[in-house]
Amino acid sequence: MTQTAQRLAPAVLSILRIMSALLLLQHAFSKFFAFPMVMKAPQMFSLIWFAGAIELVGGVLLLLGLFTRPVAFILSGELAFVYFIGHAPKGFYPLTNGGEAAVLFCFIFLYIACAGGGPISIDAMRGRR
Question: How far apart are the C-alpha atoms of 88 and 93, rounded to whole Å?
Fold first, then answer.
């Protein structure tokens, strides 16, 4: 089991990056394009608008695996801000304040910033040349 897990770990890292990016993009698409869920469009240049812009651009770059480490680091920080500004004032525990997704995204992106995008990424393809 350990050898199989070690052999698959790089590919699973890429899958984690891709799936996390797709899940994050749902938030940006809801803010700007009312898809897959209708959300009230954020006022231009508000905090929610900037969060959506960071999520949109960062989500696409992360999905592609382009500039993975710096993008994941920025997204990790953005999600920390989302949690402390938007969720923490509603209560101490993430389960009760609705912030568990923000906390989980924050730490997943922090891990990806440290680990890289994995072998299925534009960064990996550029590094092979």
Answer: 8
Burial class of residue 126 (count of CB atoms within 10 Å of its CB; 0-12, 13-18, 19+): exposed
Nearest Cα to Cα of residue 18 among 60, 78, 77: 60
Give the model confidence (pLDDT) of 97-117 as tens digits.
Answer: 999 999 999 999 999 999 999
- For the four alpha carbons of 108, 114, 115 and 118, in that order, the dihedral sign comes to positive
**Full DSSP string of 42-108:** PPTTSHHHHHHHHHHHHHHHHHHTSSHHHHHHHHHHHHHHIIIIIIGGG-SSHHHHT-HHHHHHHHH
Chain segment 26-81, per-residue pLDDT in tens = 999 999 998 988 888 889 999 999 999 999 999 999 999 999 999 999 999 999 99
Q: Name which of 1, 59, 4 is nearest 27 in CA terms.
A: 59
Q: Answer yes or no: pTM beyond 0.90.
A: yes
